[in-house]
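Why this split exists: single-chain examples teach little about how molecules sit against one another. For that reason, every record in the complexes split bundles all components of an assembly together and asks for one structure covering all of them. Below is a record exactly as it appears in the raw files.
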Amino acid sequence: MRSPTDRRAKVGTSYEPVTLRPMQEHDLTLLHAWLQRPHVVRWWGPHDRSLSLDEVRAEHFPSSAQNAGVRQYIASLGERPIGWAQSYVTLGAGDGWWESETDPGVRGIDQFLCDPNDLGRGLGTRMVEALVRLVFSDPAVTRIQTDPAPDNVRAIRCYEKAGFRAIRRIVTPDGCAVLMTQPRP
Ligand SMILES: CC(C)(COP(=O)(O)OP(=O)(O)OC[C@H]1O[C@@H](n2cnc3c(N)ncnc32)[C@H](O)[C@@H]1OP(=O)(O)O)[C@@H](O)C(=O)NCCC(=O)NCCS
């Protein structure tokens, strides 16, 4: 039997990279299921009801015009899907987000691991590092930022390990957050 320490052992092997592929419409059912899981709902909401598949489709697969600047990905470790991630252009994000931004090169990122058994084992850091590499592969990108809730200590530590630094507390349309940024290396 494995000890609790073993259960928290690192996931995967050093030669097994975390990969990111663009999310497709056929991934919506998977995403819908992941968005119902308590460890995701805790930080993503909504807290008072379940999301329908149509709501997930409307938010994550809207018309191309509404979706401009947003890139969504399914992360995998080998053949195993492990989570969802997105990057977006912060300038002009709308709905009250990042209204003081003037730099078109800034990208925001969001992500989660889909399996609660994977949390706290280093996999999220590898996923964020892979996303940062992918986002910076666009030479137009000047800076990447993220905005975890101040009490999401695990996410904040994960982002620090992936190269982000906490700048200040902010208020977003989703509530209080810690603005964390990473300039182009
Ligand atoms: C956020 C998330 C992607 C991070 O991935 P992860 O694989 O769990 O994170 P990692 O294991 O790479 O790193 C977590 C770090 O936080 C630390 N940590 C975890 N809980 C902690 C706590 N309560 N207090 C202090 N540190 C804590 C871990 O020890 C680890 O740091 P260490 O390697 O220095 O010991 C993942 O936890 C997740 O999907 N969470 C649910 C959804 C979510 O919060 N998404 C982000 C919204 S901004």
